[in-house]
Amino acid sequence: MEGFTLNILNLFLVLVAAWLGGIASKRMGYPPILGELIIGILLGPTLLGLIKETETIKVLAEIGITLLMVYIGIEIDFADLKKASWAGLLAAIGGFVVPFALGYYTIIYFGGTPTSGLFVAIAVGVTSLATKSRILVDLKLLNTRIAYVLMAGALISDTLALVIFAGIVSFADAGSLDFSGLLLVIGKAILFFVGTILIGNYLLPILGRRISKFKNQSSTMYFTLILIISFGYAELAELAGMHSILGAFMAGLFIKDNLFPKNIAREVQKSFYDVSIGFMAPIFFVSAGFNVNINVFQTDLVMLLSIVFVAIAGKILGTMLFYLPSGHGWREGITVGAGMNGRGAVEIIIAGIGLEMGIINQNIFSILVFMAIFTTFTVPFMLKWATTWLRLRGELIQVDGRKGIVILGVNPVSLLLAKHLNEKDPIVHMVDANLEMVELARERGFECTHGNALKDVIMQQAKADESTVFIGLTVNSEVNLLAAQVARENFYIYNNYILLTMDEDGAGKSILEAIKASTVFAMKVQLEPWNKKIISGEFSERQHTVINKLRTRDWVIKHGKSKILPLVIQDNEGKKRVFQYEDEIQPGETVIYIS
Q1: SS3 state of residue 159
Q2: CA dist 217 to 83, 261, 263, 360, Å?
Q3: How would you list the strands of the sheet with 576-578, edge to edge?
Q4: What does pTM read for this prediction?
Q5: Mind giving me the DSSP string for 480-523?
């Protein structure tokens, strides 16, 4: 095609830049898109000019937007919204409406058009889902009411933003409207939503069941099906006079597990994640940095500071004010607002489309990009400060959303440990690659999954997404470490306890630190001798109540490492937790161990 050439070197440089920016951002505890944006600004035409926007990059970025919106839709589970219910709805409305209004009137004050004001208002009101999960894990908030309200607020505000965005695009494309034209735009929008919902609820499940009966099934076939559905929905949105990203988002909402056989559903979604988030979307975010004009710090500094201020203040104060009727207090409202303050994918996409359509100029686009960067940088600091404040006041409320324990490795020691941990609630789920051991665990009354715990689909079956604790108890330390990494990174389990064998070298400790895991039993253990003792019955189970506070590692040294194997610590209320290296035994608590 004339005028279109595939510049391989430029594409290579964009991908390398995205990779480096994403890694740097993740290491600092931020979402990769933040690093991709910043490196696009640094290496693009704005500053160094090492990479540029070609037709190839534009096409791939457009596809990247579509696939990213599909993935965002896939990640949304409306059943999760019930966990936050009224509080989540209030946080979403307050965190969207107040900054929306402030953003609109700020642009009008600086001489912008009403349409550009609405685009900026949407971008300011959005809350990024991408900035939440990692921060919630690092601050150990996943099992708190704050976490559920934050996720619900982000889901609702992003959905609301996309619907309003679709309406603005429809009116912008139509130009001036008379009454009949207005009815036509509204009618087409209604038809789009009704049509896509009917197709998603009725036609797609039938299609999934039919395809599941094919003899030669493969994850590749289902991956192609996702692409067909995604671009089909995107085209329906275009036909209805709305932007394709809304169609892609709607497609993602209906691409759920019931569309695929369970044995390959997770694999297909993981592959889609790799292509969309790992390849296509980074191209868009790096190229978005190409259009940023750093001169706004000179020409429009007051407007930039005003937008950043109303974005932060509007989000936090709006959330706090609307949150009051929930009855959870204004302090929790401020904390939720601080957590919802980050922007990201949806905001940048909307700003980019506004720039492409000529609704906003390059300076306003640049301001919105810098606003997304600055506000996202504030999230971990403000959220940590606010949650510490709640903790000190005893107002950080825990919820029972996740309470499971996953134990990898079925053997006499792990079965004995599982028996203690399973006394209060039937929440222990075991995993093993040996079918005979799986059957043994099931005979003992435990739920047990047969398979490789390094595969997401197996961990999913083991209810890792409902668990807060992972314990690696195979005789292979490397497998334990890798499985713990999967548990943390893919399922957000931040309490990981690993068996390290006596012959493990220093590399094991460094990996433990990297994934923030701890050593079960608070020491290195050779498991086989203890397994033999339990099988032969040549062991005794003992208890020791601690009088003075003592670290677990000191308790082990005091009682002789080679003579005992501590299993659990029982608190004053009878609850038991794993005996592990990074813990302290409080006065009155009891250590249950075998010797």
Answers
A1: helix
A2: 36, 10, 11, 47
A3: 541-545, 590-594, 565-570, 576-578
A4: 0.72
A5: HHHHHHHHHHHH---EEEE---TT--HHHHHHHHHTT-EEBTTS
Yes or no: say if 162 and 346 are a contact pair by the CB < 8 Å rule.
yes
Tokens of 542: 């003992």
β 447-450/467-472 pair status: unpaired
Instruction: Tell me the DSSP string of 71-111.
Output: HHHHH--GGGHHHHHHHHHHHHHHHHHHHHHHHHHHHHHTT
Name the DSSP letter for residue 45: T
Q: Which residues contact 73 (CB under 8 A, 6 or more apart)?
A: 248, 249, 250, 251, 252, 253, 254, 255
Are 31 and 38 a contacting pair, CB within 8 Å? no
Query: Assign residue 182 a region: left if phi > 0, alpha if psi is -120 to 50, beta otherwise?
Result: alpha
Q: Say how many C-beta atoms besides its own lie within 10 A of residue 406's C-beta.
A: 27
CA 334/CA 383 separation, integer angstroms: 9
For 494-507, what is the mean pLDDT? 74
3-state secondary structure of 547: coil
Closest to 267 in 3D by CA, of 456, 78, 39: 456
239-270 pLDDT, tens digit per residue, is 887 778 888 888 888 886 567 666 566 667 77
Would you give the DSSP letter of residue 260?
S
Count the neighbouring beta carbons within 10 Å of the beta carbon of residue 108.
Answer: 15
Type of residue found at 142: L
Residue 430, helix vs strand vs coil: strand
d(CA 354, CA 112): 13
CB 326 within 8 A of CB 110: no
Residue 32 is encoded by which pair of tokens?
Answer: 């990769």
Q: Copy the structure tokens of residue 81.
A: 């919204």
Note whether 430 and 447 are within 8 A (CB): yes
The two three-digit tokens of residue 3, written as one number? 């005028």
246 alpha carbon, distance to own chain's centre? 21
264/216 Cα distance (integer angstroms): 13
Beta carbons within 10 angstroms of residue 573's beta carbon: 6
d(CA 541, CA 595): 7
Sequence-separated (6 or more) residues with CB below 8 Å from residue 248: 65, 66, 67, 69, 70, 73, 230, 231, 233, 234, 237
561 vs 515 pLDDT, higher one: 561
Token reading at 286? 């790096």
How does pLDDT run across 372-429, given as a tens digit for each residue? 889 888 888 888 898 888 888 888 776 656 778 999 999 999 999 999 988 666 589 9
Read off the tokens for 27. Answer: 């290491």
User: Do 21 and 39 meet the contact criterion of CB atoms below 8 Å apart?
Assistant: yes
Of 121, 45, 120, 172, the C-alpha closest to 363 is 120
From first CA to last CA, the distance across the chain in angstroms is 77
Look at the block and give the residue holding tokens 């067909």: 228
- Pairing assessment for the beta strands 584-585 and 565-570 based on DSSP bridges: unpaired
Alpha carbon distance 107, 118 (integer Å):
9
**Alpha-carbon gap, residue 204 to 250, rounded angstroms:** 13
The secondary structure element, H or E, covering residue 437 is helix 435-443
Residue 505 Ramachandran class (φ > 0 left, ψ -120 to 50 alpha, else beta): beta
Distance CA 349, CA 345 (A): 6
